[in-house]
Design a protein that fits this description.
514 residues; alpha+beta; GROEL, domain 1; GROEL, domain 2; GroEL; 3 domains; three-stranded mixed sheet; elongated
């Protein structure tokens, strides 16, 4: 009896487990060399010739054309890590890959997949307890937040800027959007612009959008601006059906022209008399209206994207109006300054200060598209981890020190676990060693010797991480060097890696339709 289609392929038992584990390990290996301050970059070229150069784990995995379903699960690990805490994507993927490698060894020793899954979940609970023990008792102040941001960006492409100088900008941006309710991370945006050194990167107290003024004669800058946001076409009204009008004389033509001019002037005068200094509309503006408004000193931006209009409304406190006759002064938003600025072929609108200052923009500059793209990724990750650290108030040592401490606690706890599950718990601890071993490899150190030294220092009561200071690599306390990570980044990495690895290990039958 044939149950499956003849075109279906089925892989069962050890073969299925081996195939899935191999795919997961391959994905982890693809990003492993990017980990740490000395991590390498990857160049990704798509079928259209588009090039991406980065060492951001989530970006690498998303840009890769991965088809294997088990491998895709590790991509989802990175995506989950990026969405929840903004950083640690490479760490999560590498840990997941090593959990799979350890599971493969256990399966070859005839340890059942269910036992491995139970052991891994128990070990993950111990790991979370160990992370809590590593949390710094010092307050998470601006200095610590700068260290968090700098640790996140170290080793990433930051152009001519140092991670230290960018960290100050990142912390200032996050502090700007903090209130009694917490950090409003969504109020911080990153806007990139090619054409200058990365040293020109700045924090704009407001928003930046890709829009140009409707008329060249309009003011380039308006102080203390009253802002109207419209969904209105400012021009001669047209019918919804095709129609022809017969004009029999010059007088009738003049009357039609005068009526049109009167309508256009009416729109212009209504806007000019409304008190709005700056107008953003999502529709077209007739050139005659924009010319009239330019003479009145009103700055107008037309064909504004709907998402930009929403951003302006949110930032300035304006009400979005759908009919010009409904526009009232109470609908206006406010900003200290609105300016239109040209950057080569691009025109940008800056809405700064006042109500708009509730949102901030990191305005990133760079000489090439690759530079600004990598800067945008690095700053975005730093903003996320600083926000996470500030919300939770918990940071732990980086540089592999937390993983060394967590693995040691798991090994100690494994001695009290009966049966074969003990093997899975111990293997979980061994899998965590991949982080310090990879850091050692990427800094040119011997991974085995480094791991032995790190364990010895930890067992001796020291906080031991692999510190890269210029060309020097030493084993020392990461807190002394400002190498710190949010505790939530470590927690999320272990939880998401465990979930992915256990899901893959439990699969013993793969049915694929062709």
């Amino acid at each position: 009896m044939f149950i499956l289609s003849e075109d279906s392929q089925r892989t069962q038992g050890r073969d299925a487990q081996s195939s899935n584990i191999m795919a997961g390990k391959a994905v982890a290996e693809a990003v492993r060399t990017t980990l740490g301050p000395r991590g390498m970059d990857k160049m990704l070229v798509d079928s259209g010739g588009e090039v991406v150069i980065t060492n951001d784990g989530a970006t690498i995995l998303n840009e890769m054309d991965i088809e294997h379903p088990a491998a895709q699960m590790l991509v989802e690990v990175a995506d989950s890590q990026e969405e929840e805490v903004g950083d640690g994507t490479t760490t999560a993927a590498v840990i997941a890959g090593n959990l799979l490698a350890e599971a493969e060894d256990l399966i070859e020793q005839d340890v059942h997949a269910t036992t491995i899954v139970e052991g891994y979940h128990e070990a993950a609970e111990i790991a979370l307890e160990a992370i809590a023990e590593q949390v710094s008792q010092d307050a998470v102040d601006d200095d610590v937040l700068k260290q968090v941001a700098e640790s996140s960006m170290t080793g990433k492409g930051t152009g001519g800027l140092t991670a230290e100088s960018l960290a100050e900008t990142v912390v200032e941006a996050i502090r700007h959007v903090e209130d009694d309710e917490g950090v409003h991370r969504d109020n911080v945006t990153v806007h990139t612009q090619i054409g200058a050194s990365s040293n020109a990167t700045e924090l704009v107290p407001g928003i930046v959008i890709d829009e140009e003024a409707a008329h060249d004669a309009m003011p380039k800058e308006v102080e203390d601006a009253s802002i109207a946001v419209l969904d209105v076409e400012l021009g001669v009204r047209t019918g919804d059906i095709d129609a022809e009008y017969a004009i029999d004389s010059i007088d009738q033509l003049n009357q039609a022209i005068d009526a049109e001019e009167s309508e256009v002037r009416g729109y212009a005068e209504t806007l000019a008399e409304s008190g709005a200094d700056v107008v953003f509309t999502t529709d077209d503006v007739d050139e005659r209206i924009s010319s009239f408004l330019a003479k009145e000193g009103v700055l107008v931006f037309d064909n504004v994207g709907s998402s930009d209009a929403r951003q302006i409304v949110s930032a300035t406190g304006a009400n979005r109006v759908g009919a010009l006759e409904d526009l009232e002064e109470s609908d206006f938003g406010a900003a200290d300054r609105v300016r239109s600025q040209n950057y080569g072929d691009d025109d940008l609108a800056f809405v700064e200060g006042g109500a708009a200052a509730e949102a901030v923009t990191v305005f990133v500059r760079g000489g090439t598209e690759h530079v600004v793209d990598e800067l945008e990724r690095a700053i975005g990750d730093a903003l996320d981890v600083v926000s996470t650290a500030l919300d939770s108030g918990e940071v732990v040592p980086g540089a592999g020190a937390t993983e060394i401490a967590v693995a040691d606690k798991i090994r100690s706890a494994a001695a009290g676990i009966e049966g074969r599950k003990q093997l899975a718990v111990t293997s979980f601890a061994d899998a965590l060693d991949v982080v310090p071993r990879t850091l050692a490899t990427n800094t040119g150190q011997d991974p085995i010797d480094t791991l032995v030294d790190l364990r010895a220092a930890h067992e001796g009561g020291e906080r031991a991480g692999l510190i890269t200071d210029g060309e020097t690599v030493t084993i020392d306390d990461p807190f002394e060097y400002g190498v710190v990570d949010p505790a939530d980044v470590k927690r999320e990495a272990i939880q998401s890696a465990t979930e992915a690895a256990t899901m893959i290990v439990r699969i013993d039958d793969v049915i694929a339709a062709e």
